[in-house]
Amino acid sequence: MNHIFVCKNPLKLKLTSLSIAHSWLAYERFVGNSLQNHKLKADVGLNSWQDKLFITLIVHIIPLSIIAVIFSITMELRMGHRIIAGFDAFTILAVVFFMLNRKIPLFAKRLILIIAAILFSLTSAIIFGYFTIAAVYLFGVSIFMAYQYSSIHAYLSVVGHFFIWLLIGIGMYNHLEWITAKFSLELFIVFTSNLLFLNLITVIIIRQTLGNFDRSIQKESILLKRLKDELIVVDQLNVQLAESEAQYKTLFFMSPLPKWIYDLETMMILQANEAALNSYGYTKAELLEMTISDLTGHTAEPHQKIIKKNGEISYVDLKWSSFLYKGKPSRIVIASDITERVNHLEEIERQNKRLQEIAYRQAHVIRSPLTKIMALSELIQQEYIQLQQEPLFTNLSKSAQELDQVIHDIIKHSENTSRT
To answer: 49 and 151 in one domain?
Structure first.
């Protein structure tokens, strides 16, 4: 039985704790919604922090003050102070009513709380003679104003308390009937002077702390704004980078020209497009296992020659550019096939050589009979001197010499062309 009790007790305690926590959260939401007649601004400034602090303060003040008033009323009734007990009950009920009234704005609720605390303090001190209770509440008002208002308002609260205690002291000095004094004027002066000094020091410390806190908030807000701006710029750059990368990938993979990327250090091919695979007959896996020298047949810079998978040579016009690919120094190469152009030029060169050979041979073949003609013409000139003046003979000799010069020029041109 004891074992069963031990097992059940922690579970019951846990359920009770969860129930209390749930009830407290519901209470916090109710009071928070009642205090706010508008949503708090989502900023990190001091004003927003003060609003949240005030709401948190009221959330805790209401239940604690009710508990304190219950004990206070009980004690007052036992002592026969029914008026004081009624006054305490009225004060706390009035404060709770105004705090939970959604029609009253937040700044007005602050003023109501301050006025209620001051009136309660004055009544406790002047009418009932509870100077200690009055001092505690007035001291609390100064702290509250130091946290919730500006430095000027905080210091004015200390000045206001000074005049309140001064007026009470004057009343005690003049023995006014409506002031209930339970100790001497001298003791009152000692008490209030020390209280005001402590009040002033506390307000100074709070305002200095809040000033530093406000500056920290502003700096943090500025840094946060800069960070957001930088993040926006970074996001924009990332979007542009992604768009550029997508465009480059499209240009690379969808290009009709063969393209590939290789590592400048290892010379390994890192990437190739579909046009390169189709043009050279390799699969992508095969090409990515090759070096640039395997593809071009050279170990240094890529030359204008590509070795296809079937062993054929493809002449290309290569253009390249160096860049970083996946963090490695790499080079992208674009190949334009010029095999037909190269073959065409080679064929033209072969034909030119054949024509030169033909011209050279034909020139020698023609020159042999021409030499004979020129020799016969010279013999005729020597034997028949009277024919030298005949136009027919003269034109024959001149034509033979011109033809000889033409053949000589052809042979000379062929020899020069073959040397080059």
So the answer is: yes
- The answer to whether residue 310 scores a pLDDT higher than 50 is yes
Number of domains in the chain: 4
Q: Is residue 395 part of a domain?
A: yes
CATH number of domain containing 329: 3.30.450.20
Q: What is the 3-state secondary structure (H, E, C) of the chain?
A: CHHHHHHHHHHHHHHHHHHHHHHHHHHHHHHHHHHCCCCCCCCCCHHHHHHHHHHHHHHHHHHHHHHHHHHHHHHHHHCCCHHHHHHHHHHHHHHHHHHHCCCCCHHHHHHHHHHHHHHHHHHHHHHCCCHHHHHHHHHHHHHHHHHHCCHHHHHHHHHHHHHHHHHHHHHHHCCCCCCCCCCCHHHHHHHHHHHHHHHHHHHHHHHHHHHHHHHHHHHHHHHHHHHHHHHHHHHHHHHHHHHHHHHHHHHHHCCCCCEEEEECCCCEEEEECHHHHHHHCCCHHHHHCCEHHHHHCCCCCCCCCEECCCCCEECEEEEEEEEEECCEEEEEEEEEECHHHHHHHHHHHHHHHHHHHHHHHHHHHHHHHHHHHHHHHHHHHHHCHHHHHCHHHHHHHHHHHHHHHHHHHHHHHHHHHHHC
Has residue 383 been placed in a domain? yes
Question: Does residue 58 sit in the same domain as residue 176?
Answer: yes
Q: What is the pTM assigned to this prediction?
A: 0.51
State whether 193 and 108 are in the same domain. yes
Find the mean pLDDT for residues 331-335. 89
Domain boundary among 317, 337, 357: 337
